[in-house]
Amino acid sequence: MAHTKAGSSTENNRDSQPKYLGIKLYAGEKAKPGAILVRQRGTKFVPVIGVKIGKDDTIYAIKEGVVKFETKRKTRFDGSKRRIHKVSVV
User: Fold this and answer.
1) From its phi and psi, is residue 34 left (phi > 0), alpha (psi between -120 and 50) or beta?
2) Which of 8, 16, 60, 90 has the largest count of CB atoms under 10 Å?
């Protein structure tokens, strides 16, 4: 008997849209107010001077200037250490 195996072929055709996360303006580049610097999930990068963080953890500039990234070692309350990445516009 000839059988046609059909049915499940359409179950595999779904995929989510790309989110385009990451750094949008690098160190030394000029930023205007409202320019998005980093799109992220969680706070891998933290805002410092001249930047704010949105409700989806996007970091954006609030003044005009040059983007600056720096890394600092931070000691947590339990004694463990973590590197934090700071983003600022000066």
Assistant:
1) left
2) 60
